[in-house]
């Protein structure tokens, strides 16, 4: 078992810097595209054999140090009573958004064995095959609330802000319900065998520090506190969230993922011994190879050999990314850091 | 003449904190919407009487301490040989994007009196009417290059990054041409009577610090150096750009505008005596009035009474913003800071 990721997430010295990529399984891979000719995205996510097969692709083809279960932030939402439709080119769409506290009655607690058995089964299958740690993930309360209130991806997040300005208590209740649901979801995934629990706060960068502290931090802190019982390392990632780094740290994850804009050296200074994951701009995977590798080196230099660094992108892999470039990054990171 | 803005931009003490709003003239105003029933956006921009009338609306209705000429970042581009179409709900679209150095031949130097006489005429008209300073603006080289390369607004900025990774010298030449064009544009506006020159780098937050320093800083610095000759105070604003604040300062503007995510107190600490403009989240204009005013107060408290603060939003006013809320912010800022 390759436990380099787990040791890095514990802040321990490792024989080399572990590397994996957000969205490392997906459309940019030829094998995934072939599979998608026969199955829809929800079919893959809900069929454990298929989800496991897709999860394994980057481990087999790229030599990464971790697998991340193939699923979507919205995967557990139908189990909580929210119908989600995946619209090609548009992402998840929620037909009946939650716009006030009266709508909270439509949410029900998540019961993972009843609501997401396919996720747990995929994890059990994967644990028999994998020789690297398996990461399970969920959306953070604020980001999931944004989906629920906006009805899908948003440009200005005006509805979710309107809700929290006008009914902070109702909004807090919504976030609590989501924190409880995601705690149950991640705990069940840990019990099924997931080694690392990651929380994605993709849209949290929309909040000012004041608003994060008041509206997002309490429920997020509760989520991480609940996850302590699993004994699994936790990872918390936000985008456009440089201004929130210290507050996200206060939420209590074991490690923090940073976006491409947040300077890695700056983050490490501010977080002390807390491990940091990141942060190559995914657009660099389209650069000429020498420039790509120089950027990888620059990020490693920012880390200055400190333990507790997990190499990753600052955002998910973009469609159309050349697979050979992704492989070149894995090799470079391993080679430069001692493997 | 109300010169409070000019004194704040000079870092001098002022009788109260000056306030104006990005996109303070526009669709959220009933009078503007009435005008738009009869004229298209390009008609308003290209007709000096109309542009001046729209520019005056917020000064008359809101009591702000500055006017900003009603125009678009792409207004000078046709003069440089780039055809721009304004598409409703989509923004400016450039039919023939610039994708390589070979396309640079299509760009020609801007000659303001020939290419944008309507802008200069609007400024001359406004100077007869206004009793507050008039701000003229232009796009920063990187942001304009993004428009030219992407062909319009973008989500991932992959084409512009591809260009700069693959042909850094060609990209530098593109930015130089744009810096020269915008220097000519802003100088002509200063000569026509504009009191303050503002440079918008709306998309610069997409760049890492390393890439900003290498690809955007040189041309931006040249632009601000050219503007020195006008004697007018200069303002430089970027969005999603907290990580770039110190580098944008190095570009040489007299003052910096910050987005809503960048903590004002943090910015002021890092910038010393350099004046700072910002940074209320425009979504707050949809909050209940007490909450809106509490947020205004919190921003003023972050400034701690230091001279060199211009109150503004962290982004442009959103469509649908209630005008009364905008007025309430002006009153609160003036009242709380001594007027």
Describe this structure in words.
The structure is a homodimer of 339-residue chains. Chain A has 339 residues and is of the alpha/beta class. Chain A has a single domain, classed as TIM Barrel (Alpha-Beta Barrel), CATH 3.20.20. In chain A, the strands form 2 sheets. A 7-stranded parallel β-sheet of chain A has the order 1-4-5-6-7-8-9. Chain A has a two-stranded antiparallel ribbon with strand order 2-3. The mean pLDDT of chain A is 96. Chains A and B meet through helix 8, helix 10 and helix 13 of A and helix 8, helix 10 and helix 13 of B.
Highest-level CATH class of chain A: Alpha Beta
Q: What is the overall number of helices of chain A? A: 14
Oligomer: homodimer
CATH T-level fold name of chain A: TIM Barrel
How many β strands of chain A by DSSP?
9
Tertiary shape of chain A: globular
Q: Spatial order of the strands in the main sheet of chain A?
A: 1-4-5-6-7-8-9
Order of helices and strands of chain A: HHHHEEEHHEHHHEHEHEHEHEH
Question: Any low-confidence stretches of chain A, pLDDT <50, length ≥5?
Answer: none
Q: Give me the secondary-structure category of chain A.
A: alpha/beta
Named CATH architecture of chain A: Alpha-Beta Barrel
Q: Write down the domain tally of chain A.
A: 1
Most extensive chain-chain interface:
A-B, 30 and 30 residues
| Estimated share of beta-strand residues of chain A | 5-15%
Distance separating the two termini of chain A: 16 Å
The radius of gyration over CA of chain A amounts to 19 Å
Level of helix content of chain A?
A: 40-55%
The overall average pLDDT of chain A, rounded, is: 96
- Report the biggest beta sheet of chain A as strand number plus sense, adding barrel if it closes: 7 strands, parallel
């Amino acid at each position: 078992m390759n436990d380099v990721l787990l040791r890095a997430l514990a802040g321990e010295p490792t024989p080399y810097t572990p590397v994996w990529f957000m969205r490392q399984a997906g459309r940019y891979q030829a094998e995934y595209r072939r599979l998608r000719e026969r199955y829809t995205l929800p079919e893959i996510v809900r069929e454990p054999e298929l989800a496991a097969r897709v999860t394994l692709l980057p481990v087999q083809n790229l030599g990464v140090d971790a697998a991340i279960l193939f699923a979507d932030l919205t995967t557990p939402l139908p189990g909580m009573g929210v119908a989600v439709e995946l619209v090609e080119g548009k992402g998840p769409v929620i037909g009946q958004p939650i716009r006030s506290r009266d709508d909270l009655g439509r949410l029900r607690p998540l019961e993972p064995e009843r609501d997401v058995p396919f996720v747990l089964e995929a994890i059990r299958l994967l644990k028999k095959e994998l020789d690297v740690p398996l990461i399970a993930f969920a959306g953070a309360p604020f980001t999931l609330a944004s989906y629920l209130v906006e009805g899908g991806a948003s440009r200005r997040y005006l509805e979710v802000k309107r809700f929290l300005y006008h009914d902070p208590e109702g909004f807090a209740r919504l976030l609590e319900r989501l924190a409880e649901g995601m705690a149950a979801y991640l705990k069940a995934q840990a019990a099924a065998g997931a080694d690392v629990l990651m929380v994605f706060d993709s849209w949290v960068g929309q909040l000012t520090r004041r608003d994060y502290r008041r509206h997002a931090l309490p429920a997020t802190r509760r989520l991480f506190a609940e996850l302590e019982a699993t004994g699994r390392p936790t990872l918390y990632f936000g985008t456009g969230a440089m201004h929130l780094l210290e507050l996200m740290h206060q939420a209590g994850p074991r490690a923090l993922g940073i976006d491409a804009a947040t300077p890695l050296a700056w983050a490490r200074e501010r977080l002390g011994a807390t491990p940091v994951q990141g942060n190559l701009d995914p657009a660099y995977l389209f650069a000429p190879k020498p420039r790509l590798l120089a950027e990888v080196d620059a990020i490693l230099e920012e880390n200055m050999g400190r333990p507790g660094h997990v190499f990753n992108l600052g955002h998910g892999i973009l469609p159309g990314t050349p697979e050979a470039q992704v492989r070149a990054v894995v090799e470079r990171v391993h080679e430069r850091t001692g493997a």
